[in-house]
Amino acid sequence: MKTCSINNFWRYAMCLFAAAMISLGSAAADDTIHDKVDEMPTYKGGNDALMKFICNNMVYPKEAINSGIEGRVVIQYVIEKDGKVSARKVVKSVSPQLDAEALRVSKLINNWTPGKIKGDPVRCHFTLPFVFKLQ
User: Fold this and answer.
1) Closest by alpha carbon to 121, among 30, 28, 50?
2) Contact at 8 Å (CB) between 56 and 116?
3) Both 20 and 40 in a single domain?
4) Computed over its alpha carbons, how large is the radius of gyration of the chain?
């Protein structure tokens, strides 16, 4: 009968440790937020439905109207593997009032088909402009 030497024990323990680290590394890589994907995320219903949703929900802040403030607020967020939206932030600001309104409306938009790499859904950044124009 073979006995386990201390050296063999430590080799076995190191192999288990290495296997655990590899599996942890692949789980972490699974949470990567991609900037480039094979298939971009799409709003269910298409771009026309997205623009209609934004137009129906966006309210021009009265303070901005009274001050004559207009411009394009750009919001970046993460579209998750399940199509939900997280980590919203303003990447191009116009004013606190317009920024807040763009963020408010962006929080209502959750109906996405996720981005894909090699056919698999992945987390990815998505940037959306909100245009405020006085007439």
Assistant:
1) 30
2) no
3) no
4) 23
Q: Range of 12's domain?
A: 1-30
Residues 72 and 117 in one domain: yes
Q: What is the CATH number of the domain that holds 120?
A: 3.30.2420
Residue 39 DSSP code: B
- Phi/psi for 120 (5° steps) reads -100, 135
Dihedral class, residue 55 (left if φ above 0, else alpha if ψ from -120 to 50, else beta): alpha
Q: Which two tokens stand for residue 121?
A: 């859904």
Which residues make Cβ contacts (< 8 Å) with residue 94, sequence separation at least 6? 69, 70, 71, 72, 73, 132
Which amino acid is located at 32 in the chain?
A: T
- Angle among Cα 71, 124, 100 to the nearest 5 degrees reads 30
Model confidence, pTM? 0.74
Residue 78 · residue 85 · CB < 8 Å = yes
For the stretch 1-32, pLDDT in tens is 444 444 444 444 444 344 333 333 333 357 89
